[in-house]
Amino acid sequence: MEFRQETLRIGGERLARERVIEVMNPYTNECIGAVPKASVEDVRRAFEIARAYRPKLSRYERHRILLKAADIVVARAEEIADLITAESGLCKKDSRYEAGRVRDVLIFGAHAALNDDGQIFSCDITPHGRERRVYTQREPLLGVISAITPFNHPMNQVAHKVVPSVATNNRMVLKPSEKVPLSALLFADILYEAGLPPEMFQVVTGDPAEIADELLTNPAVELVTFTGGVAIGKHIAAKIGYRRTVLELGGNDPLIVLDDADLDKATDLAVAGSYKNSGQRCTAVKRMIVQESVADRFVELLVEKSRRWRYGDPMDETMDMGTVIDEAAAKLFEARVNEAVAQGAKLLYGNVRRGALYSPTVLDRVRPEMNVVREETFGPVSPVIRFKTLDEAIALVNGTAFGLSSGLCTNRLDAIARFVNELHVGSVNVWEVPGYRLELTPFGGIKDSGLGYKEGVLEAIKSFTNVKTYSLPWPAA
Ligand code: NAD
Q1: pTM for the predicted model, two decimal places
Q2: What positions carry a catalytic annotation?
């Protein structure tokens, strides 16, 4: 992988800076590139440029830009996947999949841009009604959107922020994760190549300790959209004051397996949900909640399939899993698993670490109070918790601080209805992993996983716009 010396993307200029952040390949430990360490002044300049600019793109123009960007992503998918893999350690299978998801976000955004979803209300519908109609229209924000993204989907998280912003004629300043900034910069360049005015999307890279506060408190900011961990999400909520926030935070998603389930199918979902993206998805399966009478067989199949999950050099096309983001993260998983074992959990496979490479790991007889399942363990760990009754399973799922998504393996309609109604989560996927969704559909959590505002292209469009009503005299037809 060639070394990339990158620049800031501020107001159509590519600005180099003396101070840089090195970007490391988590597998080889090589420095693969460097991005500028923006100053607070750089961030202020980006917001000034954004605030002064009023996008005037027609719906058709926004549609064309997003479609063209989708074409570029398809044409350069291999290069995109290589870059994601190099800076994040995700294996090529995962990073190719991510490039496909980015394309989907662009396509859905392009189509959403065409859709004027205004509503019409006739006013002659009450005894004191009038011969009028009230209409709604969605308008871009007056201020600028400030976006902050995490490391785990280096390009797709960025796409989920900027595409709805472009579709609604907003202006956005983005700070990507300092661990994976190169994919964000490449995506910005793809959008510019597709014709996006650079004032509508600027990227500042840097040290959050220095510049994050400016992204939250700059007077031009009207809305902060943040995806990342709970601690920083809550810090942002406390810091920003009278501003809108969309917070998409951590998860601790269960895969619930009932005694009628086809265990082969359930364990296919378990391993995919737990190990894809090296277990680093907010909606990864982080707890397997399995009915006691089928748990032994479930665990046997889980171990067998975990052994078959090939992990190693992320660039090797045959691997199912690469590294986690860095050695510190891998050490944390190792420590959490060791702690659970010391408290009585049974390690059945894995917990092997080499640098940032951490094996698929199966733990049985896990109890809900153990940190490995009480906290978000953001890596390829499969902890199994056994339960007897549905009440117990529901209490287990609802018993953590998180409430993002869930997967459910059963064909019992009575049980499905109970889980859908009683789980304190944003999504319940029957016979699917918790992470299943379209890039278009509403997505997001409650409790510590988020404030309930959703993402997904259509929901983000709602968050990023103000609804205005206007009314006209209108005689009954
Ligand atoms: P993180 O919270 O450590 O960092 C996220 C971003 O916040 C980074 O860009 C970082 O630079 C920035 N940041 C750091 N300090 C800041 C500050 N003081 N103010 C503002 N921003 C600051 O998260 P991460 O480790 O990059 O990502 C993993 C986390 O993200 C997991 O908890 C995962 O569940 C969560 N996540 C949630 C979703 C979702 O949609 N709910 C999706 C993906 C990831």
Answers
A1: 0.97
A2: 248, 282
